From TrEMBL:
Organism: Brevibacterium iodinum ATCC 49514
PANTHER family registered for this protein in UniProt: SYNAPTIC VESICLE GLYCOPROTEIN 2
PROSITE patterns referenced in this protein's UniProt entry, alphabetically: MFS, SUGAR_TRANSPORT_1, SUGAR_TRANSPORT_2
Lineage, top ranks: Bacteria, Bacillati, Actinomycetota, Actinomycetes, Micrococcales
Bilayer-crossing regions: 34-59, 71-89, 101-119, 166-183, 284-305, 317-340, 347-367, 379-400, 412-436, 442-463
Name of the protein in its database record: MFS transporter, putative metabolite:H+ symporter
């Protein structure tokens, strides 16, 4: 079978572009599906490490006799590291490629999470959590860019939404495995599990090619064509030729590459200006949605074990309730994947985000009215929140990843993620030292829910619907 591959800077009316070829390939589990699974496993361990913050807070509070404010730094250091990593790794992925960046993020967060298990003092532990967060922050935006750029357009909404199904799996495994391991050791043991993500880099190395859309966007057309040819062969598509066109802006060429470190940092910082120049409305909506929706989710994930322990539950019991909240989120992701194409990104995201905020405020009311034995209404509100928020979050990730063109997709998602990480990184200190003690649990969650409503209104008026669009 021969291929006549044309590489042009203009689009022929009869010859499809490379992006159109990829967008219309048949979905095959052994091809795009394998990329989805490997990327999903990275996302699962990402969730595991983030959820670990909530379980470490009550354990280390006892181990090092920490105040609520000191304990908050366990989550804050990790999340601030994620904010820094999200903006840096998103830009790096747009320079060195999705595959290399994904591999490096996995290694960094795995190594420093394990290092935290051997921290000799609280200060060292906080440093290692920050560095683990730095690697972790780049995993999600790079992962979504990589998987999305291999997925046919008619399935992209469901596939990217289903990607978030790995999050409740990882968070739930963290809760249940941690509760189990506490019967054999202390907090150090539950951190050593995170050596496993380092092994996933082998699967990335041999199971995922570089994104051909990325390669074409930086002028590496021959490499892009070779990968597209393999994709066509493996999926059985009837395609013989295609053409290339510039993907917005001036593509970098291999011969114009700057020294690597300086070029990567310059690209990472320069993307911020490009994002706002590309569309200030889009970037405002993306940031506000990420900040508000993820602030509500991380507030629950980070503090629920500590809140329940303060109510009188034992560590393992608090972990299991939190694990139930995250586990039911798997069903939420399935529902999201089933309805996101039918009803559209904006409607699904807006309705589910507001309902989740209401349920969390309701859960706070019932928790404050309960003792060590949680009432069924408190448990129902907690579990309901876990279900609905996982309809909203995967839709959010899918929506924002589609709002930007290929040249800005990694950095666009990365900067929105960075904004949310910064907000959620500061939130544990504000929550633990001021809002919860002074305002009470219910009012604290009502105020965070109000931010969600404001962000949804901005989306409704300023942002376009992306359902059915081809990636540009």
């Amino acid at each position: 079978m021969g291929y006549c591959v044309f590489v042009h800077t203009t689009t022929s009316a009869s010859v499809p572009t490379a992006s159109e070829v990829i967008a219309h390939l048949p979905w095959k589990w052994r091809t795009q599906g394998a990329i989805f699974i490997i990327g999903g496993l990275g996302f699962m361990f990402d969730a595991w490490d983030v959820a670990l913050n909530g379980f470490l807070i009550p354990l280390l509070s006892d181990y090092w006799s920490l105040t609520v404010g000191q304990a908050a730094w366990i989550a804050t250091a990790n999340l601030i590291g994620m904010a820094l990593g999200a903006f840096i790794w998103g830009g790096i992925a747009d320079v060195i490629g999705r595959k290399k960046a994904f591999t490096l993020t996995l290694l960094v967060f795995s190594i420093f999470t394990v290092a935290g298990a051997f921290a000799p003092a609280y200060g060292w532990f906080i440093l290692f959590r920050f560095l683990a967060g730095f690697g972790l922050g780049g995993c999600i935006p790079v992962d979504y860019a990589l998987v999305g750029e291999f997925t046919p357009s008619r399935r992209r909404g469901r596939v990217l939404t289903a990607m978030d199904g790995w999050w409740p799996i990882g968070a739930s495994l963290c809760a249940f495995v941690s509760a189990y391991l506490l019967g054999f050791g202390d907090w150090r043991l539950i951190m050593l599990v995170m050596i496993v993500p380092a092994l996933l880099t082998v699967a990335v190395r041999f199971g995922i090619p570089e994104s051909p859309l990325y390669l074409a966007s930086v002028g590496r057309y021959a490499e892009a064509d070779a990968i597209i040819k393999r994709l066509v062969e493996r999926t059985g598509a009837d395609v013989r030729e295609w053409t290339h066109e510039p993907v917005g802006g001036t593509a970098a060429t291999p011969s114009s590459a700057e020294p690597k470190v300086r070029g990567q940092l310059r690209a990472a910082s320069g993307q911020l200006v490009q994002l706002w120049q590309h569309s200030a409305r889009t970037t405002l909506v993306a940031w506000s949605l990420f900040v508000s929706v993820l602030l509500v989710y991380y507030a629950a994930l980070t503090w629920l074990p500590g809140i329940l322990k303060k109510q009188g539950l034992a560590d393992q019991a608090a972990f299991l309730v939190t694990g139930s909240m995250t586990a039911v989120g798997i069903l939420g992701v399935i529902v999201s994947a089933l309805i996101v194409e039918r009803f559209g990104r904006k409607w699904v995201l807006g309705v589910s985000a507001i309902i989740a905020a209401v349920l969390l405020a309701g859960a706070a009311v019932f928790i404050e009215a309960s003792g060590a034995d949680l009432t069924w209404t408190a448990k129902a509100a907690i579990i309901g929140f876990g279900f609905v928020i996982q309809i909203a979050i995967p839709t959010l990730y899918t929506y924002v990843s589609e709002l930007y063109p290929t040249r800005l997709r990694g950095s666009g998602f990365g900067w929105a993620s960075a904004a949310s990480r910064l907000a959620t990184g500061i939130a544990p200190i504000v929550f633990g030292a001021f809002m919860w003690p002074v305002l009470g649990l219910t009012l604290t969650f009502v105020l965070t829910g109000a931010l969600v409503v404001a962000a949804v209104l901005l989306m409704g008026f300023l942002a376009r619907e992306t359902t059915g669009e081809e990636l540009s």
